[in-house]
């Protein structure tokens, strides 16, 4: 199959690596910062084709790429910025892709990666009707859900659509702000004991889920992508300190202090700590899923490599 991936972030990089072992993969990017240049190089080594393409301004070229594709996957999105920036990335971009797919004769499968934080905590089940019972609060949450609803309305009756709602995504190539923050503390040998836990999902497992999904080709599906078990935040720090050769020092830190110390992009997401997400579809696709400690270990080494090259930029 020919697969087109929009966006060159760390999740897209992992997924492109997984898919390229079996399919012909093309990844688009708008610009390259130093970290994305590393992603670019790693994917080129895997035989992935990379093209510079702005989804919103290069629509004719996007249309040509969609015509050549059996599957289109959108990984473009923003977690921070003003409301206009969030709306453009989280609504306008997927809307543009979906509209072009609807116009195309080949009608490729559209896989849209979205969010999982929609105002509901505790035990979160997948809703029967898209968006039913959800209560997004922040501009990020609101635009993510609006993006889902827009592509759903365009796709219904026209082409296959899969909406993936990943929980906390980790992986060896992650340079997201939360992982950079953890790396910097682990570098000092600090392991905060906070009582905070999340249900994570590795980027590699997202790639494996997509492999199954493009085989099954459901017409309309939306689900939470998660590994079905909560993992303590301190586990990440323990693995990081081990990878960095540090003797970790456990420091009890109240949740309130953690929340005030975290970057503002992450602070609002901490209210979802401890939330249990419906993992029935994830289990159906991949069976029993386990937290991949080696991916976190390799991530610490990757961040160390970026740090040593003076290009450790949250991406």
Automatic annotation (TrEMBL):
<dbReference type="InterPro" id="IPR051783">
    <property type="entry name" value="NAD(P)-dependent_oxidoreduct"/>
</dbReference>
<protein>
    <recommendedName>
        <fullName>NAD-dependent epimerase/dehydratase domain-containing protein</fullName>
    </recommendedName>
</protein>
<dbReference type="Pfam" id="PF01370">
    <property type="entry name" value="Epimerase"/>
</dbReference>
<dbReference type="GO" id="GO:0004029">
    <property type="term" value="F:aldehyde dehydrogenase (NAD+) activity"/>
</dbReference>
<dbReference type="InterPro" id="IPR036291">
    <property type="entry name" value="NAD(P)-bd_dom_sf"/>
</dbReference>
<dbReference type="InterPro" id="IPR001509">
    <property type="entry name" value="Epimerase_deHydtase"/>
</dbReference>
<dbReference type="GO" id="GO:0005737">
    <property type="term" value="C:cytoplasm"/>
</dbReference>
<feature type="domain" description="NAD-dependent epimerase/dehydratase">
    <location>
        <begin position="3"/>
        <end position="176"/>
    </location>
</feature>
């Amino acid at each position: 199959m020919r697969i087109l991936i929009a966006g060159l972030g760390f999740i897209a990089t992992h997924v492109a690596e997984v898919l390229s072992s079996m399919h012909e993969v093309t990844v688009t990017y708008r610009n390259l910062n130093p970290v994305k240049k590393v992603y670019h190089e790693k994917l080129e080594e895997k035989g992935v084709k990379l093209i510079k393409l702005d989804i919103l301004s290069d629509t004719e070229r996007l249309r040509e790429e969609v015509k050549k594709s059996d599957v289109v996957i959108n990984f473009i999105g923003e977690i921070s910025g003003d409301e206009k920036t969030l709306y453009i990335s989280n609504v306008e971009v997927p809307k543009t892709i979906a509209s072009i797919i609807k116009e195309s004769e080949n009608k490729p499968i559209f896989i849209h990666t979205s969010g999982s934080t929609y105002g509901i905590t505790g035990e979160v089940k997948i809703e029967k009707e898209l968006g039913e019972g959800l209560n997004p609060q922040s501009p990020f949450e609101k635009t993510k859900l609006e993006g889902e609803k827009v592509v759903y309305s365009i796709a219904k009756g026209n082409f296959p659509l899969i909406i993936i709602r990943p929980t906390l995504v980790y992986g060896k190539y992650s340079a997201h702000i939360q992982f950079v923050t953890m790396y910097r503390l682990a570098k000092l040998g600090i392991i905060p004991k906070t009582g905070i836990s999340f249900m994570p999902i590795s980027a590699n497992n997202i790639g494996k889920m997509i492999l199954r999904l493009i085989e099954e080709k459901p017409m309309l599906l939306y689900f939470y992508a998660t590994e079905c078990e909560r993992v303590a935040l301190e586990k990440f720090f323990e693995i990081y300190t081990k990878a960095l050769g540090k003797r970790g020092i456990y420091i009890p830190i109240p949740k309130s202090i953690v929340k005030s110390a975290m970057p503002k992009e992450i602070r609002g997401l901490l209210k979802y700590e401890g939330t249990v997400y419906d993992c029935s579809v994830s289990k159906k696709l991949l069976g029993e899923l386990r937290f991949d400690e080696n991916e976190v270990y390799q991530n610490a080494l990757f961040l160390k490599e970026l740090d040593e090259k003076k290009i450790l930029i949250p991406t």
